[in-house]
Amino acid sequence: MSPDTLDTPSLVYEDLLTRAAAAAEPASAATPAERARWLEAAADALDAAAGDLVPVAASETHLPEGRLTGELKRTTFQLRLFADVLREGSYLDARVDHADPGWGMGPRPDLRRVLRPLGPVAVWSAGNFPFAFSVAGGDTASALAAGCPVVVTAHPGHPLLSDRTAAVLASALDKAGAPDGIVGLVTGVETGRRLVADPRIRAGAFTGSQTAGRALFDLAAARPDPIPFYGELGSVNPVFVTPGAARERADALVSGFLGSVTLGVGQFCTKPGVIFVPAGTDLVERIAQGAGTLTGAPMLNDRIRSGFAAALARLAEQPEVTLVAGTTDVGTAPALALFTTTYDQHAPARERLEVECFGPAALIVTYDDPAQLADAAAALDGQLTATVQGTESEAELVRPLLERLADRAGRVVWNGWPTGVSVTHAMHHGGPYPAATTPTTSVGTAAIGRFLRPVSYQSVPDGLLPPALQEANPWNLPRRVDGALRLP
Predict the structure, then answer these.
(1) What is the pLDDT of residues 216-258, one digit of tens each?
(2) Exactly one of 269, 320, 356, 357 is catalytic; which is it?
(3) Assigned CATH for 9-233+438-481
(4) Confidence of residue 132 (pLDDT cuts 50, 70, 90)
């Protein structure tokens, strides 16, 4: 067994979990402003350590330093964005209903409701984003913002970076006054399984393969006390090209699709893996010609490359598809492998053909009747994204298509490309199963809601209430009082 897959020793594991459990109460009791300062201190420390962290990430992942520098900036940006959320305060959804003897359903007692942290959270790092979805990534940031201690399982693809990032993060949080043990790092597959079953863990967050994520999800559900498990598991991110779009901007469609499907060597969970294009155009030929000019690049690690090779081989074996560009011989630096089929061949075989190939590969499906697009959308499994390349003049075609895609995907893209997930307030990164295990987001400020649960207090004296619910509103929160929203 290589060092990067060794499980954390039991004594070390027990110490980390004991400290995480002890940190839960003081983390929950901290004011939003205090937690905001913790996150900002962590962001500042990570920025200051960029000169040390980025070269380590590059050596372990084959990713260029420019990409990693940008990803680290994204990581610290989202920490600071959550700090802003904490100071604004509406994330607590504080509600106050004063006692009302004339309430329409009969006399109402004094009721006050607020969200509170779940407790220690287990996070499993992703391999394709060694900063943004790893030790200090979005899951960790949103859990810390909620007031939850975090225990992270390091990804074996970047063990040294994980260790160094965890050290920077823990030191910064400690200096900022956060409770001891609020962040911990473990390693190994068996340790990860042990973590999800540990009664001190109150929620899990995972980004990775459907196989691994489903196994952890099942363990979380099988506990005597099942816990929420927020897994992002995979997606083929379909693209639907209408006849009008194909006529008006073929060049842009070809270049945009090729750029999106090969971005990061196709190792993005939002990479478009299948594209529906109208038959009778030259789009297939033009995409294939463009694919033939592309050169490959090294994938993140041997494990991802072997998984991509296996998925690619399975797709190539399907009798309905034809390889029109590239090769199924992955090698060390694969270029784009491009397959094609027809709608009539695809429809009865979609369960075999709409399979995620995590790397530079895609399937082009040609259709004869534009009405087939809505049927294809309705048959989709849950997706992280779905994209429509269309025109507003085709409203009768695209309106039902958009409606069906909204039912099957977490993010619907119009005349853009799905790669590139903005960290913002309105972003949703998730989708119906198997894209994700719950209808929540792992990107954007709404992610904080995964690690909070509501509690109502009935007839509790004002001095004994949490500050968020006290009559004087000492935290100066926006609150809903007797049904009306009141801003500070």
Answers:
(1) 999 999 999 999 999 999 899 999 999 999 999 999 999 999 9
(2) 269
(3) 3.40.605.10
(4) very high
Q: State how far the Cα of 431 lies from the Cα of 442, in Å rounded to an integer.
A: 10
Whole-number pLDDT of residue 12: 97
For domain 239-414, which CATH number applies: 3.30.70.980, 3.40.50.720, 3.40.309.10, 3.90.550.10? 3.40.309.10
* pLDDT score of 2 more than 50: no
Average pLDDT (339-353) is 97
User: From the CB of residue 306, how many other CB atoms can be counted at a distance below 10 Å?
Assistant: 12
317 included as an active-site residue: no
Catalytic residue among 232, 320, 354, 356: 232
Percent of all residues in the chain with a pLDDT value above 90, rounded to a whole number? 97
The pTM score is 0.95
269 noted as active-site residue? yes
**Contact yes or no for 198/189 (Cβ under 8 A):** no
State the average pLDDT over residues 105-128. 97
**Strand ordering across the sheet containing 150-153:** 183-186, 150-153, 121-124, 203-207, 229-232
For residue 410, name the pLDDT band (cuts at 50, 70, 90): very high
- Per domain, the residue ranges of the chain are 9-233+438-481, 239-414
